[in-house]
Amino acid sequence: MSIASKEYRTITQIAGPLVFVEKTEPIGYNELATVTMPDGTQKRGQVLDTSDDVVVIQVFEGTTGIEKAAGVKFLGETMKMPVSRDMLGRILSGAGEPIDGGPAITPEKRLDISGAAINPWARAEPMEFIQTGISTIDGMNTLVRGQKLPIFSSSGLPHNDIALQIARQSKVRTGEEFAVVFAAMGITAEEAQYFMSDFERTGALKRAVVFMNLADDPAIERILTPKLALTTAEYLAFELDMHVLVILTDVTNYCEALRQIGAAREEVPGRRGYPGYMYTDLASMYERAGRIKGKKGSITQIPILTMPGDDITHPIPDLTGYITEGQIVTSRELHRAGIYPPINVSASLSRLMNAGIGPELTREDHKAISDQLYAAYAEGKDLRGLVAIVGKDALSERDQHFLEFADAFEDKFVRQGTDEDRDIETTLDIAWELVAGLPINQLSRIDRKYIETYHPEYRKSE
To answer: Three-state DSSP class for 423?
Structure first.
């Protein structure tokens, strides 16, 4: 009798989403299984741990109703994602099942969801610009094809609105095919309805594949959702030659699911109760972004996470920062001031920005004007602290220019509408209008040739 047809009735323990089975044949890690209850109903599961004595199965639909008398069959294969070009425009559950009322997806291929991190030798360097339409990202923390650039947010801040705006507006400027894979993990039913209605209202769904894992779905499904999303992205990028942007929200909910399952397995916890292998687990997810030599497509990731207690040293943002190539940080202070998107450019960084900007990519003055914005805004923010002590009238004329610049920068450059899609030329032109309020001799980060070409004073005289 083959292992796939043998049924075991040796369940010894049921803990959370886990079922422990004894005295089995050798079973492979990640192998699929079915659990059949006495009334004939079945639940699907996956092998989480295997040894000579015990096999641990995580049950996708939860263990409610499972008894020790239930039968377990191992199927001899790992979980695979059915993929097809027809997935574009579809909304799927966190387990990959259609929830939009449409037909089942007819697969062109079935791919193992575990995937694999791209071989370092086969990687091509991330380069070329992805335009998000958001000035604080495009102008000062540029997103590059093949990059992984997380957004560090906090509870109560509008990171979901930012995620949707990026999903709607993102594009490559070379005319190549572009797609978005949007995976939401642990969201409420209200948030899911908001996401779905926004994708449908704006027409962004036509070029997107959306995965929705709800807060009341099993924790194991939450762990599968990003794997399914990234497997879909790999198919679109490396089989269909598309440039794919993967947006994952909220990675904190994913890590909480890891902690929940780790506790059920009675693992020795690491920092703040999270599994000791969380770094490796996150890396296996983030490192599926990139470009491959000889392939036209690319996978770019924007993971979004909420920092518990606004703590950027919390294990989730801390480990994410080690693996990824920068971060976009949101600001509660800007949010309180009514500024959207509340992106704190001072704490944000895109380490690969230089690979995506410059002549033939964005514009020749991009790096210089970005550096000047950073320097002038930093000085203006420092002066706010001084004004609180000595008053604005005590400042020199030069300092008053920088103080006014900081206010104008937040109001005109950072602030934009949720449906306002700025191309890179518009973003850079706004930047030049802002620095025009400073004395020209204070523009120390910009070459004279760029000042003479792009500064509004010189444009007027032409």
So the answer is: coil
Examine the domain organization and report whether 57 and 173 are in the same domain.
Answer: no
Q: In what order do the strands lie in the sheet with 42-50?
A: 7-8, 71-78, 31-36, 42-50, 54-59, 18-22, 11-15
Pair 291, 385 in one domain: no
Residues forming beta bridges with residue 329, ordered by sequence position: 152
Same domain, 322 and 237: yes
Q: Contact 254/222 with Cβ under 8 angstroms?
A: yes
List Cα–Cα distances, 141 to 30, 288, 289, 301, 316, in angstroms: 38, 21, 18, 14, 21
Q: How far apart are CA 443 and CA 394, in angstroms?
A: 23
Which of 322, 355, 388 terminates a domain? The answer is: 355
Q: What is the mean pLDDT of each run of 10 residues along the chain (462 residues)?
A: 73 90 87 91 90 90 88 91 94 93 91 82 92 98 97 96 96 92 96 93 94 92 94 96 96 95 86 93 94 95 96 96 96 97 97 94 96 97 90 89 96 97 97 96 95 88 58
Q: Is the peptide bond before 250 cis (omega within 30 degrees of 0)?
A: yes
Q: What is the CA radius of gyration of the chain?
A: 25
- Give me the residue label for tokens 């641990």: 56
What gap in Å lies between CA 454 and CA 457, rounded to an integer?
A: 9
Indicate whether 262 belongs to any domain: yes
Task: Indicate the number of domains in the chain.
Answer: 3
Range of the domain at 254: 81-355
For residue 328, is it within any domain? yes
| Final residue belonging to a domain, choices 320, 355, 390 | 355
Which position has the token pair 């799927």? 92
- The values of phi and psi at residue 304, to 5°, are -115, 130
pLDDT at 182: 97
pTM of the predicted protein model: 0.92
The pLDDT assigned to 461 comes to 59
